[in-house]
Design goal:
The protein is built from 30 helices and no strands. The protein is an all-alpha fold. α29 packs across α30.
Amino acid sequence: MFDVSSLCWTSRDEVGERLLSALELPGCVGLRAARLLALLAPPSLAAALTRIAADPARSFWHRGYALRALARASIGLPDETFARLLDEVLVDNPAAPLAELFPFARSGARLAALLARFDRATPAARRAWLATMGRLADHRCEEIEAWLVARWIEDVARTSPDDEDASLAVYLAEDHPDVLDVLAAYFRDRPQDPELFEDIRLFPDLAHRLDDETRAAAAAALVLPRRDLLRRSSIAELRRAARKAVLDHNFARFCPIDKPRTSYGYRGALAFLEEDENGPAMAANLLARARLHEALRADLGLVLHRRRRRVAVQYLERRGADPENLELARALLREIAKNPDTRDRAALLAALHFPDPEARFLALDVLDAVAENGPTFRAALESLAEDPDPFVRLRVTGALACRGHASHMQTLVEAARASANATLRALAIRLLGMLDEARDHFALFERALLEDHAAEEPDGPTPTVEQAAFALGSVFGPEATTALLRGLLLAPSNASLDVVEAALSVILDEMEGAPLTTSARRQEITLRDGGRCTSWSPLRSPGWWW
């Protein structure tokens, strides 16, 4: 009987051997064992993994993960096994994932055989296979993908693109610009479809593939780049149109019952303001003079920040506490947090006294990032220690602990162990993981990873596990391998599973390369996890990250 608590790190091969016995466990643990096998990719298990991949009695996911493990370990498939699997996956309801076979058919006779099979298939089947390409986690098979894209474009040209074709074209357009011809054909008979304008905003080259009437409609919606818009209207006309689009959308936000469809022109107006040299002044004027919905104030504040950072930061300092600027202050503080700068300190210190707890929390985060420690900041910390919001109070505790206040370290530890709120526990773990003393608390992080599976809401994120995984991987590195192995098998949610896998993959790579610093591990885990864990904020709506 497999016992997760008995799993310990020794080597890829020995841990992989143990995981083979866990594949038959019921529920998600058996599936997680297969996923962990794919991550470890133990070369010594090539024969066992090949048997699993070729066994039609095995589950779809077990076979797919076995193929992935073989590809990661650079182990080939015998020709007979490849041919049999190819027959299985090229059917309507495959018993194994087609995309996982692609790494075994990159050239030679196998590639030719695969493309020949694609060539004999129906257009619907080719489209379905193309749609699965992006799900291959490890490798993109450029030659196969390019062949399928080109053939799909030919297939569509013989008929007429439908909704599925249009969705697939949007999905592929960044890597394969030629698929914009499919979108252009799709919209040829729907020039006023508002979705068209969003696609042009995303892919400006699409406009040049459309007829004059549709390009005119796109220009009216302000979704073309500024240089293209100037070919149709004067700069004065465009500025008036952009201002009108903002105010029309503002009216719609205040009067939802009579709401016209204005969002596409509004998005185009924001993009125009970011490009136009007069855009920051227009944004500032609207912020100063117009009665704006809070969402629009936030959007215009970001336009101002991206073009005139100093002006936007001064506005935050002077007006960020105003009730109508609640969302604007939050948006600007999140934007500032992406690139902390000591030149913003006056606005950040002011934000510590804003009436919105999220603004105070975000300002504390950024000031910590730039190691602020002046007398004004220390006085603010003393005041905020009695803040009515528990997350702000705990964030202050973290700031004080970071500055050498030993008594506050124990407060963080107690909050991480025993707070009644899972999100407060997660915040305490996050703050502990950022301190030099984090290495004193391995047991606390490990317990949180393996046992503290409470969600923020039913079926929602499990932030304590996520923060513990990040702390273990970044602070302890290879020392945390056993805990993370077990944590991957027991992860209570998809988000926590992704963070644990990101941390574990960084550690495994470190074992086979040069030692990493805590900072380097933190950066790499953040990259592989897509920033989900490091950018987490306890004051955001559950399930969001920024």
